[in-house]
Design brief:
Order of helices and strands: HHEEEHEHEE
Strand order of the largest sheet: 1-2-3
CATH topology of the largest domain: Aminopeptidase
Helix content: 25-40%
Largest sheet: 3 strands, antiparallel
CATH architecture of the largest domain: 3-Layer(aba) Sandwich
CATH superfamily of the largest domain: Gcn5-related N-acetyltransferase (GNAT)
Radius of gyration: 14 Å
Strand content: 35-45%
CATH class of the largest domain: Alpha Beta
Shape: globular
Number of strands: 6
């Protein structure tokens, strides 16, 4: 990622997700990596991964006009491949319990529900902790 793309990454996360994992982990002692998907020189999507003891996908965001073209799947696969290349045997992520379509999407890629995290997104807003085992 180029220096001038940092702001684009943050803006895209806020636009699609309403928050920026990139910003949230920037001041924390994690190793981190951003994967970008570009179409015609424009950022079409991104994924933010971070790790210490566990490898986590913190966010995956694809601009609406580029959805359903395999970009999100490709970004998740890049995270998995990278995690494997640096010695991890599992990849973790969290998904809101009420996002059934997204939970199903991750299941098609081999992720499985590991646990429910109560109030992860606020009071009464629970998340699934999902894991991909290599």
């Amino acid at each position: 990622m180029k220096d001038d793309e940092v702001e684009d990454v943050i803006d895209l996360e806020y636009e699609i997700l309403g928050l920026s994992v990139f910003v949230n982990i920037s001041t924390k002692p994690y190793h981190k990596k951003v994967f970008l998907a570009e179409v015609n020189g424009e950022i079409a999507g991104l994924s933010v991964a971070y790790w210490n003891d566990e490898f986590k996908i913190g966010s995956v965001a694809v601009k609406e006009e580029y959805r359903n073209q395999g970009i999100g799947r490709s970004l998740v696969k890049k995270c998995i491949e990278f995690a494997r290349s640096i010695g991890f045997d599992s990849v973790w992520l969290e998904v809101a319990v009420n996002q059934a379509r997204l939970v199903s999407y991750y299941k098609t890629m081999g992720f499985r529900i590991h646990d429910v995290i109560k109030h992860y997104y606020g009071i009464g807003k629970h998340a699934y902790s999902m894991v991909y085992r290599m």
